């Protein structure tokens, strides 16, 4: 391998690593804190949701955060577990599903509402076109789940589809932890 190829390869690795850090908002000293949470997300009028804003995680309550997109087939599958667990714990736990899709062009609010209704969404649905929440959680794909305890500490995260039993177990753990803070688990 010649010297030029080695230098090019090393430069590429450096750029890739820095890009990954920037995308996940993990550059040291970027904002002087370890997390961008809590943050506010725009909410929309849909079944179980009203237009406005929501703080994530919810203050004083365990929170289930679901990152989804209307084009994402596994996100449709994830809605079954979310709906079941919401029916069981919706009065004790805040649920919020957030899409990072941009409204306008080929996707309208009506499209999101229709997807939401079709897949039995019945809790807060939010819009985050700049992917601030995705970045704050370090999510690199969809669907992505996070569970925070009542103090706002992220206790569990999961990339991909989580089963109803797994989601139920993590919600129970968040409820049991009360307002005690601890180390997040992945």
TrEMBL record:
Source species: Halobellus rubicundus
GO biological process: cytochrome complex assembly
Record's subcellular location: Cell envelope
InterPro entries for the chain: Redoxin, Thioredoxin-like_sf, Thioredoxin_CS, Thioredoxin_domain, Thioredoxin_ResA/DsbE_sf
Keyword Cell membrane on entry: no
Stretches that traverse the bilayer: none
Organism lineage string: Archaea, Methanobacteriati, Methanobacteriota, Stenosarchaea group, Halobacteria
Keywords: Cytochrome c-type biogenesis
Chief location category: other
Protein name per the record: TlpA family protein disulfide reductase
Residues of the Thioredoxin domain: 14-176
């Amino acid at each position: 391998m010649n010297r030029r190829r080695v230098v090019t390869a090393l430069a590429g690795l450096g750029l890739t690593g820095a890009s990954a850090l920037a995308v996940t908002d993990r550059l040291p000293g970027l904002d002087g804190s370890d997390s961008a949470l809590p943050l506010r997300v725009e909410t929309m009028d849909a079944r179980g949701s009203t237009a406005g804003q929501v703080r994530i995680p919810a203050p004083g309550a365990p929170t289930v955060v679901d990152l989804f997109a209307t084009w994402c087939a596994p996100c449709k599958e994830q809605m079954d577990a979310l709906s079941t667990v919401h029916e069981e714990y919706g009065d004790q736990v805040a649920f919020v599903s957030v899409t990072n899709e941009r409204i306008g062009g080929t996707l309208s609010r009506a499209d999101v509402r229709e997807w939401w209704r079709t897949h039995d969404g019945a809790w807060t649905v939010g819009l985050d076109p700049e992917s601030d929440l995705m970045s704050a959680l370090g999510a690199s794909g969809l669907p992505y789940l996070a569970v925070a305890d009542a103090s706002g500490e992220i206790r569990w995260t999961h990339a991909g589809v989580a089963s109803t039993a797994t989601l139920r177990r993590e919600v129970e753990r968040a409820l049991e932890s009360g307002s005690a803070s601890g180390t997040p688990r992945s």
